């Protein structure tokens, strides 16, 4: 096989025809055949197969925009000789890395493994275990994703929070309501990331996620994908229990022998097992407390907090692409980073083109926000979190859960500031730190929020501690020099963004088990080993592979 990189195609040309920023994968492959033939100086008929490995957009010379492709092709002629003749420095022979499920170990597992949490980490761990015949029991405190979706919509509409089924809890995890972005910084040496993408596609995700540099599924499509994965787990003998919360572990000589579970009615029972995949999310604060009280070793870790900001998407497009909109370009993303004069890093996180800010609360009396987009990314606003990293020495306190306490302090302040509604402030008022005007007659043309849930204009400038506030203030000015209008007066500042990652790490060893609890496999976001849908899914698959390489089904 031959891989050709850095193929540059003028956006909008015949080989770059898009509908709403997306080209159907098969049509894209066909359109690139003559481009590939030209790159190798061969007849197009010599190309037996072509697939796109990576696609990105180059807007450095806007308004001249280019699509950049890396493609993989097979020829029906001698590939080595074709390469020698072409003398194209961007083309080379290669063997694709294909991830393979591990060969099973010899130690029989007599009781099904229990996977705690049906977010991306738990779902993918359970799926891989089911594929190899282990018939896992997957427990989830929240509801099935199709029911959870109704609960979330009801919360946004009425403000009535279900503390077990919300933006944080339920099948699909927090990622189900955060756009379905599949970006990851994890290197994919063994092809596990490609397998994760294929699993998504096989269960209904858009095919272009396989090659887009910044792939996303969209909250609306992710619901069906999650449901389909669950149904496959069940079809392979797995058991999925919703509204079933892990309330404790049973241990003998520091080895797990069972899991205590509590249903929605408060009835407690025990599932006997010697293998527990702890795939809880970053908001499972009560579960952190249970594990801590039972002596499972964990430690506080750095995370980040800040505010959501909103801008008109057309203005972001104009700054990034040189045009307000184009049928051949997706809603533009952005990424900004700044090191402040006091040495703090301020950066954008979970950027949602054409998206919505959402009330992502999970506890009564506390409020936090997140961002999401639907597949079409067609709302009028772009949003992202502008955040600052905080470390245990910043938020003080003692013990592994001091970061949770700090999060709650900010979320309580946000709840009180908005009286249960998302507090919002224009940057002009935020900087003046005075009277909050909101939308007035003289501001009738100013940007308005795209928020899921009620919002109210309030003193967001009073929300964060002074050092974090100063860092964000300086960052916004710096970002205004990078992206035109980023620090415009009508930029919307909303808070609080506090659930960027887990505030704890459940420490594990090289065998991927908790360092003082055998049979317990902490993984994913909640355990502190992932930061997003893809990295969480991959970590769950990694843990499943470890278990499978040592054990075999004996149930």
Automatic annotation (TrEMBL):
Q: What positions does the domain FAD-dependent protein C-terminal occupy? A: 302-500
* Coiled coil stretches, renumbered: none
InterPro entries given in the database record: FAD-binding_protein (IPR028348), FAD-depend_C (IPR049516), FAD/NAD-bd_sf (IPR036188)
Q: Which domain of life is it from?
A: Bacteria
Protein name as annotated = FAD-dependent oxidoreductase
| Species assigned in the record | Butyrivibrio fibrisolvens
Q: What is the lineage of its organism?
A: Bacteria, Bacillati, Bacillota, Clostridia, Lachnospirales
């Amino acid at each position: 096989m031959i891989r050709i990189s850095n193929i540059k195609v003028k956006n909008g040309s015949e080989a770059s025809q898009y509908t709403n920023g997306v080209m159907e994968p098969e049509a894209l492959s066909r359109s690139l055949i003559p481009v590939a033939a030209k790159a190798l100086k061969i007849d197009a008929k010599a190309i037996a197969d072509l697939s796109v490995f990576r696609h990105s957009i180059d807007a450095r010379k806007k308004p001249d925009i280019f699509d950049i492709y890396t493609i993989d092709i097979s020829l029906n002629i001698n590939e080595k000789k074709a390469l020698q003749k072409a003398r194209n420095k961007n083309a080379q022979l290669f063997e694709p890395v294909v991830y393979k499920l591990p060969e099973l170990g010899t130690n029989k597992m007599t009781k099904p493994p229990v996977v705690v949490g049906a977010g991306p980490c738990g779902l993918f761990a359970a799926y891989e275990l089911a594929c190899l015949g282990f018939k896992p029991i997957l427990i989830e405190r929240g509801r099935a994703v199709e029911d959870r979706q109704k609960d979330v919509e009801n919360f946004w509409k009425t403000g009535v929070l279900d503390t077990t089924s919300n933006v944080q809890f339920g099948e699909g995890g927090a990622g189900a309501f955060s756009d379905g972005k599949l970006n990851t910084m994890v290197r994919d040496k063994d092809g596990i990331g490609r397998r994760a993408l294929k699993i998504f596609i096989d269960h209904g995700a858009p095919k272009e996620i396989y090659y887009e540099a910044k792939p996303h599924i969209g909250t609306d499509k992710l619901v069906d994908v999650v449901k389909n994965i669950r149904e496959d787990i069940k079809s392979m003998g797995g058991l999925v229990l919703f509204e079933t919360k892990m309330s404790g572990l049973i241990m003998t000589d520091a080895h797990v022998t069972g899991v205590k579970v509590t249903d929605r009615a408060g009835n407690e029972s025990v599932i006997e097992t010697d293998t527990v995949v702890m795939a809880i999310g970053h908001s499972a604060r009560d579960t952190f407390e249970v594990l801590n009280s039972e002596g499972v070793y964990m430690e506080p870790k750095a995370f980040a907090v800040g505010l959501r900001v909103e801008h008109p998407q057309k203005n972001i497009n104009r700054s990034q692409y040189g045009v307000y909109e184009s049928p051949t370009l997706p809603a533009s993303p952005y990424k900004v980073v700044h090191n402040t004069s006091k040495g703090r890093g301020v950066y954008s996180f979970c950027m949602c083109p054409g998206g919505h800010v959402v009330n992502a609360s999970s506890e009564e009396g506390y409020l936090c926000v997140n961002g999401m987009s639907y597949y079409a990314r067609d709302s009028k606003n772009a949003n992202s979190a502008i955040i600052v990293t905080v470390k245990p020495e910043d938020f003080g306190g003692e013990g592994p859960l001091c970061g949770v306490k700090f999060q709650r302090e900010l979320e309580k302040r946000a709840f009180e500031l908005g009286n249960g509604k998302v507090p919002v402030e224009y940057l002009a008022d935020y900087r003046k730190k005075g009277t909050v005007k909101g939308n007035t007659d003289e501001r009738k043309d100013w940007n308005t929020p795209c928020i899921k849930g009620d919002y109210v204009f309030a003193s967001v400038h009073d929300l964060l501690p002074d050092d974090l506030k100063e860092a964000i203030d300086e960052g916004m000015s710096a970002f205004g020099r990078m992206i035109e209008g980023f620090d415009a007066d009508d930029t919307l500042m909303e808070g609080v963004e506090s659930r960027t990652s887990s505030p704890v790490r459940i420490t594990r060893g090289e065998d991927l088990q908790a360092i003082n609890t055998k049979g317990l496999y902490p993984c994913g976001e909640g355990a502190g080993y992932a930061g997003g849908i893809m990295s969480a899914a991959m970590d769950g698959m990694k843990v499943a592979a470890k278990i499978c390489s040592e054990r075999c089904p004996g149930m």
